């Protein structure tokens, strides 16, 4: 397997000190792309927000990955792509990075700003022919929707069936009340961030979407993984392992009430015939 001498590529002229750990592959004649690399770097947070301009430069250079702020004094960047492009991006930062670490390529297909809201989400508990929870994520002005029979979980070992259903209007997010065959409550709501290596909505079309919820009950990273295509595509909704994960918990049982009215779905249904219930 080692068909060429390792470590002969050190002599690349003018090697910048910032980019310690010169890539051995640069000397290779092998078929692997000669000089690609991935760097994780931290920098002091500049006075002005440079995330959008760094993203523009990354895109122009063909660098993939992400940028995010950490706390209130640090900027973190994951940059992968052709070595020269990655180095150009690093050199373009207003201040020298505090720390640069060579990391594995992760296979990003975009350069994203992480930690920014992509829109709203809502989970509506819905009693109809069958009882379920509708998870809806705002994507390009519509609410992409999945019916989750058992409801979401904060336990990363719980894989919850989520059947993709028709998009809903954003205006439906506030709906709560009795219906002809049951009722609806707004079980949770908030904002969300898009994550993953693939830009949205393509991530959804390809069947793997990673996102971070900022709700009252649901928080932290989640993944939706499509397991069966067709007219009613089946997905699995899984909590990712992060600081918001709560192994063994049952959030649906623990916090049954509406985040709008504090009523349970049963209370809303029983108000159906009460005078003035929907006034
Ligand atoms: Mn429904």
Task: Tell me about this structure.
The chain is mainly β and 279 residues long. It has two domains: 1-115, Alpha-Beta Plaits; 119-269, no CATH class. Helices cover 13% and strands 38% of the residues. The chain is built from five helices and 14 strands. The chain has helices spanning 51-61, 83-91, 202-206, 251-254, 265-270, and strands at residues 36-44, 64-70, 74-82, 99-102, 111-113, 119-127, 131-139, 142-148, 159-168, 177-179, 182-194, 208-215, 219-228, 234-239. An eight-stranded antiparallel barrel has the order 6-7-8-9-14-13-12-11. A hairpin with a 3-residue loop joins strand 2 and strand 3 (74-82). The longest helix is centred in the N-terminal third of the chain and has 11 residues, at 51-61. It is elongated and about 65 Å long. The termini are far apart. It binds manganese (II) ion. The site of manganese (II) ion has 5 residues, from strand 7.
